Amino acid sequence: MKNKLLTFAIVAMMSCISGVVRAQNRTVTGKITNEQGTPLVATIAPKTTSNVATSSDESGLYSLSVPETVDSLIVNSIGYMTKTVVIRNNVADVQLQVDGNYNLDEVVVIGYGTQRKGDLTAPVATVNMENALKRTVSTPMDALQGAVTGVQIISSGAPGTTPTVRIRGVGSFNNESPLYVVDGMFMDNIDFLNPNDIADMSVLKDASGAAIYGVRAANGVIIVTTKRGSLNMKTKVTYNGYAGLHTPTNVLKMASGQQYADYAIAVGNKNIVDNSVSKFGGQDGRPTTNTDWYGELLRSNALIHNHNLDVQGGSEKISYSFGINYLDQDGIMDTENYHRKYNIRSQTEARVASWLKIGFTAHLNNFNAFAPNNAAFRQAYFASPLYPSYDPSLELADPIKFGSSTTLGMPSGFWFNNPLATAYYNHNETKGFQVLPSAYVEAEFWKKKLTFRSQLSQRYQSTHNIQYTPVYYIDNDQRSQRSYLRSAQARNNNYILDNLLTYRDETGKHHWSVLLGQSTREERWRETWVSANDVPQSEEFWYVGQGAQGTGSATGYGEGGFRNAGISFFTRGTYDFDNKYLLTATFRADGSSKYQTKWGYFPSLGIGWVLSREKFMENQSLFDLLKLRGSWGLLGNDGIQPNAGYAIVNSGNNFSGIFGSVGENNGVRVPGYRVGRFFTQVRWEVVEEWDAGLDFALLNNRLNGTVDYYYRKTKDLAFSRPIPFMWDRVYGNWGSVANSGWEIGLDWKDQVGQLDYNIGANITTLKNKVTDIGALANIMNGFPEWSAEFPARIEANQPINYYYGYEVAGVYQNTAEINSDPIATRYNQENPNSPILPGYLRYKDQNENGELDEADRINLGNYLPKLTYGFNVGLNYKNFDFSVAFQGVAGNKIHNLNRAMRRKYPQMNADAAFMEGLWNGEGSSNTYPSAAGSVAAWNLQASSFFVENGAYLRIQNMQLGYNFRVRESIPVRIFATADRPAIFTRYNGFTPEVSGMGFDSNVYPISSTYSLGLNVTF
User: Fold this and answer.
1) Model-level pTM greater than 0.85?
2) CATH classification (class only), 22-96
């Protein structure tokens, strides 16, 4: 009993003491600014204790509760010198000075660790996430477009679509995508992430920085670190969200009904016009129907909204971060197409002992995407405006009375189908979820010197895709007599186990570190699909199995998959003397189950010299930082086809004959078979890269910049080549390709009165050249089904996949010009029934032999831009901020396959610029052929007429923000954003952003987005 009373007394006494202590706390307020009076975001903590801390807001204001015994605070902000300030009357205003060593001390995330920026010997680009979050995009990489040197990003207009990302050109025929590392886990893309979840993003562009990732790093590495809390951090809750509208931009203007009618009559298709007049109204070749197919396909507005809630904080031993966000984006195609996802992120780290900490991070992503049928946009370019999108007079049309091109007498086939019906009768929905758990333990065996970290990361993803086509009828060409259902389940299950031992030490001016690492990984993917016909349209019956509705089709089941495993050993050593002379060396040995050559070895070396720390630079006032860098290394690409280590059985007509057939089958081919006899041992492609760079900061760190020259050559380039005198092809490492260029990035920050401003610019050049393709003279490539007519070509000493054809030198204006041209004269003699006429294209005789032959075909350019660039301006005045960013490319070409398809489909429509530019008499045009000439075979050969300039300049983003406070402790920012509001280009298409090899067969249009947003912190 006495012990219970004593315990009660002690507890009561401690409570009273605690209450007295709390009562003796005081609240300190103040404002943090720089020397020019600009508000700063900074961390404020008591000098004598680390139990409490806070941060100032965007206005520089803070409030902190501290014990009465605390008389001073420690204030620090990135880029400024740490300062101790005395508290006077519960107020502590602080003015911070720029830290001249900031550019050296900034910490940068690199492979398997971090490093001071001043110690880097590789061109590691860090992404400004504050600027990236100003974009209203559904994927993080779209937000980086035009922001990082050496990185080209090609966006797609379809909601949720993965953008194309290229780092320093294209070095493979197989795989050009970089490796993404998210909190230690290898990923093919980071579309699942919400940009608000990302704290840091680093781009490893050269071999010195990326070689630590070995066979996965040939196309560069992008390292993503998600948001985390910190110890002794007051809980901070932030909401960031916006809502806006997508609107179609740069919509391709097509020929009007009357323009098309005049053209159809000119090329001999008057029956199409007469049928339209007879069926839908008009007279004397002037139809009244004028259907704008793109106008029918596109919405004027589509909704997008994004919401993010983030919680961060920490006690003396535990830090935590939690985030939840939701994105909902509708597409601008006026039918069902959207992308919706929500993410939950959780991170906790606990220091369980002074030498030991453990952590756990998890990402849960759930998404639902409805993919549009992009074929509708292709058909919209072909579709005649002389029939309506809906036609109530079509009695057989069911269930919806869509119009039919057959009423005009159009040819049958896919290209002349009603594009609106193609978009409508489409159900392609994918639902899925993904979990990325990661757990680690880190032990410090020797304080601030020797640490060991072990981390297990996993990725599990499951997706379910449903494709359904109902029964419908428009005409005999566009119909579905039986409903069709395809259901596919796919699963990814990957894991990586990393073990890292790091030793850091220093003696005097010597500093060094050594990393020893081992990594084990396994990747599994499996897909199972089933299909059935005659499935009811109601979704409740959309499954296949015993007792299910519908009849399984003959090929109603299939499976696919792969399983790869690998083990790696790697090391990295760094050394610097007096933070002045720098050395970094890495080595990785990669073992893989994909190839018969089991091991690859990838070394790299980087050196640096910080000239600004030399004595001969002490008395100068221009440079705050001046550093030279140089690096070399080898990288690998295992994203190529693995060994086909088994016999391949070939069958079909090429391997068949007549072997004693009798009776009814006499003379009929009997199936034959042959076992493939050729096998090549395939190994990963290897990239060797050199880089020379310069980092500098001038004029009190107001001007910062970097300049790099790079040369990267891919060896053992893998592709299949034919075997002479046989039908077989063999896959192996036959060639090489080189990419080289300059990267320049500049950033200027200054203040005029109360106006803060910054100006940034970056520019990258690229020279791409295939250096070897084995014994082959060339490889013909191109757009599927059109590679023969409009080829792209791979040839030594030329850019990869260049467009191959004749150079157009103008248009024949009269008969005299035709008769004086040896090429035209010879052609007309050989083709008297289809001669060259005035208004036809004139091709340049490259070898001047008087004949248009193979030698006259040349390099017409290719899809890779020779120049990519971006620039931005940011302004801050009192409570207002404004920013604008631009992005563009130059030196690339686009093959306008939309126009080129007239080679097979002369009845198709065309864009208004094409129709308005047609030659109609001597002197009217020296660029476009005549109407009759536009369907003549002579003018529809692969030529520069169909290859257009792909250069553009886009206003990428504009944002205006206003900052204020609801209370002292609740900062609020409201903002208005215009994303991709305008583009300047000469290209005759929806967008000059065309992925793949640059063949434009009508892509999903890029849209502009206008939104309002709110950011508030509690």
Assistant:
1) yes
2) mainly beta
